[in-house]
Amino acid sequence: MKVGVVGASGYTGMLLLRLLQNHPRVEQILPVSSSKPGEKLDQEDPGLGAFLPKFETCHGRFMTLDEAVAQQPDVVFAALPHLASASVCAPFFGKTVVIDLSADFRIKDRAVFHRAYGQEPPRPDLLDKAVYGLAEWHTQAIKTADIIANPGCYTTCSLLPLLPLYRTGLIEPRAVINAASGISGAGKKADLKYLLTERAESMQGYSLGTRHRHCQEIEDQTKSQDQQARILFNPHLVPMKRGIASTILVDLKPGKSLADAEAAWKSAYKDRPFVQYTANRIPATGEVWGSNRCDFGAVLADPERDPSALLISSVLDNLVKGASGQAVQNMNLRFGFPETEGLPWTNQI
Fold first, then answer.
1. Are the CB atoms for 243 and 182 separated by under 8 Å?
2. pTM surpassing 0.85?
3. Is the Cβ–Cβ distance between 12 and 78 less than 8 Å?
């Protein structure tokens, strides 16, 4: 299998190279970088090592986009900025499977997309052909899709525990999500506010309420299960490299219980290895660091005075299950490979 990675020098692209290097079905990897064409992989990214048998086609160097197009890959991962990915990937549409890690195809409603990103979707003509790549929820559609819109990291962490509750009608429409992300979620770029001396010993909320673009994405997906769903999303930047922790407050409907919620989660994910319900144990980001898992637990906020208030704590690695890992999981589903193939289930110590 021949696989292209466009945007191979960013964090998600770098991780894709590592996952694909260890994937038993992948024979050739085509790493594309517009900023580093021709430069040697092991010099720009020493962590890959010098033994790169799957990079022989590119002679161990970053390729140009035209060079990758000429190789006619079976699948292309686009690890590019929002609003730029669709245009860069234009030569691949209709010729190869595209798994897009940007937001360009995530939201089909053009008004909702405009509200989130301040402009029209870059390729509205292709939106109907794109499948939202939340692997555990759109498995069958992913299996035949030629454009797969990989979900956002914050979004995946929130949707996996929320969707079963909305689908079964267990909760009231409003959910309040307080989420914290490591700095790598902002991407690989030089920016004063992401320097160690600016971020160390400091935690900060930003784009609170409905202002963050992922709020629109989360609400768009929850409305597929409950048209009345309403999301308030409060992201925070914390001084760690990787990881997302989301604490979600929802209200159970009258007569519904935590046991009902647990039954919904177990039914939704009983055969899905990368989603783990931890019951009343609150998981930590370190438990999923480097893995393709999303773990979440739940407790009643105040069992005696307010038994309807349900608190959910969800964690994942923003670069793995929140990005590159889920993208490879989608590749596995699309090409009929075992869902777990080439992906880490356990964390790194």
1. yes
2. yes
3. no
